[in-house]
Write a structure and sequence with these properties.
- This protein has about 475 residues and is an alpha/beta fold.
- The strands form 4 sheets. The protein has an 8-stranded mixed β-sheet with strand order 8-9-10-5-4-11-12-13. Strands 15-16-14-17-20-19-18 form a 7-stranded mixed β-sheet.
- It folds into 3 domains: about 120 residues, no CATH class; about 130 residues, Rossmann fold (3-Layer(aba) Sandwich), CATH 3.40.50; about 160 residues, Dihydrodipicolinate Reductase, domain 2 (2-Layer Sandwich).
């Protein structure tokens, strides 16, 4: 047998093992609300090849690929436990087991590591929490995809309705088609049917009522059987407390804005300040995609090195508020053709840092350039640190933060020397640190932060909604603080 034959046989063996993992992962998710992760990446609804590629990602941790033969025993051990709703990282289980010197079996170690999700410690399943989407544009449709994907056993978040203005003949059919196919993010993973007579879209069994209204005051959500709902406003039409309060109608308990909030509306970046949300807060904002991209790495740097001042330059993909061709626009430059020009514009992300990181006294300034790509942006974060350091130290710190810290769902890390913007379409992280582009000299550090300004941001929105709804389940093993 040749070396090539050995490699192929090894690949086929790993394929077989990954294939055996899929029904276990699916059953845990459907029946127990357990999401199986591998170094913070979900394995739910993933293909054989995707599972193997996710295992390969682990080479960033110890320089070697994590084998499915190493993680399968931990996955099998989970099936023997009385698990409650949780997220369990089998990659972290495998890594911490290697470092454990107590001589425990895989089954014994796993039982101890996830004890907080078993027996009397486990979270009891809650009634499904209703969610309403007000607006169904780019972010609204991606949030809808995520809500449908995360339906699990049906005891988490439940998308009940979307509210839009009537768009003409076959409105619901066209909106369903936009949910089904996306030029950037690909096809919807599942099936979608339309019940025009009842104004309902059925996606993977989720019945979603399409409500037509021109203003929040026109809707009584209880008439549709909706109660205590979290309403996600994707329109950006109202950004202050007075305007967003219009949504607090019968059937709606909380309002989440997918744009920067104004005035006293809390701007939340999940992973950084979501724990500061008051239980009785009814209105909050998820800030902007750029704020979500820069605040987690900024916190990671400030916690380790201190930050005296900073500037962020955002190179941002064009958005729907720009013109396709030159035409009138209320803004000075956004009227010029988005696919043909780089357009200097403003960003409120720098000023929003103060809301998310009130203890950071450093002055952060910012500016932005819109460029002719439809998705994925990059923020260049230039920092003056409180102490001198080296590039190697900074990269080691940020790599560890991305893998083992409480910010690992927000911060990703890539060392590929040939990565470009389209490689990050579909990233679920708020920010991806480009190791190769990072520059450090003394107390100056420049970080290049990629982010999918549509999908990555939508994932952050969902995390905030999960938190305020009480269905943000704990992760095991517990991340290192």
């Amino acid at each position: 047998m040749t070396v090539n034959d050995d490699s192929f046989t090894n690949w086929k063996n790993r394929e077989e093992i990954a294939e055996s993992m899929i029904p276990i992962i699916g059953k845990l998710h459907r029946e127990r609300d357990v999401t199986v992760l591998l170094h913070s990446r979900s394995l739910v609804n993933k293909s054989v090849v995707s599972i193997l590629k996710t295992h390969r990602f682990a080479r960033q941790i110890a320089g070697g690929e994590l084998s499915v033969t190493e993680t399968l025993p931990f996955l099998q051990a989970l099936t023997t436990l009385d698990l409650g709703p949780s997220q369990i990282d089998i990659g972290m289980l495998a890594a911490t087991y290697k470092a454990d010197d107590r001589g425990l079996s895989v089954e014994e170690f796993t039982a101890g590591a996830v004890a907080g999700a078993t027996g009397t410690n486990k979270i009891e399943r809650r009634e499904p929490r209703d969610v309403v989407l007000y607006g169904f544009g780019r972010i609204g449709r991606l949030v809808a995809r995520l809500l449908i994907e995360k339906a699990g056993s049906g005891n988490g978040l439940r998308l009940r309705a979307i509210v839009v203005r009537q768009g003409g003949d076959q409105d619901i059919v066209k909106r369903a088609s936009l949910l089904r196919r996306d030029s950037i993010h690909g096809q919807f993973q599942g099936t979608i049917t339309v019940d025009e007579a009842n104004s309902t879209i059925i996606a993977n069994g989720n019945e979603i009522k399409v409500i037509y209204a021109n203003d929040p005051s026109e809707v009584d959500y209880t008439a549709y059987g909706i109660k205590d709902a979290i309403l996600i406003d994707n329109t950006g039409k109202w950004r202050d407390r007075e305007g967003l309060s219009k949504h607090l109608r019968p059937g709606v308990e909380k309002v989440v804005l997918t744009a920067p909030g104004k005035g006293d509306v809390p701007n939340i970046v999940h992973g950084v300040n979501h724990d500061m949300i008051k239980p009785d807060e009814q209105i909050l904002s998820c800030a902007s995609c750029t704020t979500n991209a820069i605040v987690p790495p900024l916190k990671a740097m400030a916690d380790e090195y201190g930050v005296l001042r900073g500037h962020v330059e955002t190179v941002h993909s064009f958005t729907n508020d720009q013109n396709l061709l030159d035409n009138y626009h209320a803004a000075d430059r956004r009227g010029r053709s988005a696919p043909l020009n780089m357009v200097i514009t403003e960003t409120g992300a720098a000023s929003a840092v103060a809301k998310a990181l009130p203890d950071l006294k450093a002055r952060i300034t910012g500016s932005s350039i819109r460029v002719p790509v439809p998705n994925v942006s990059i923020a260049i974060l230039n920092l003056r640190l409180a102490r001198e350091t080296t590039r190697e130290e900074v990269l080691d710190h940020l790599r560890n933060v991305s893998l083992t810290s409480p910010l690992k769902r927000q911060i990703d890390f890539i060392s590929a020397p040939d990565a470009v913007s389209s490689d990050f379409i579909g990233s679920r992280h708020a920010s991806i640190i480009d190791a190769g582009a990072t520059k450090v000299e003394g107390d100056d550090a420049i970080l290049y932060l990629w982010y999918d300004n549509e999908f990555g941001y939508s994932c952050q929105v969902i995390r905030v909604v999960q938190h305020v709804s009480g269905v943000e389940y704990p992760t095991f093993p517990v991340p290192v603080v």
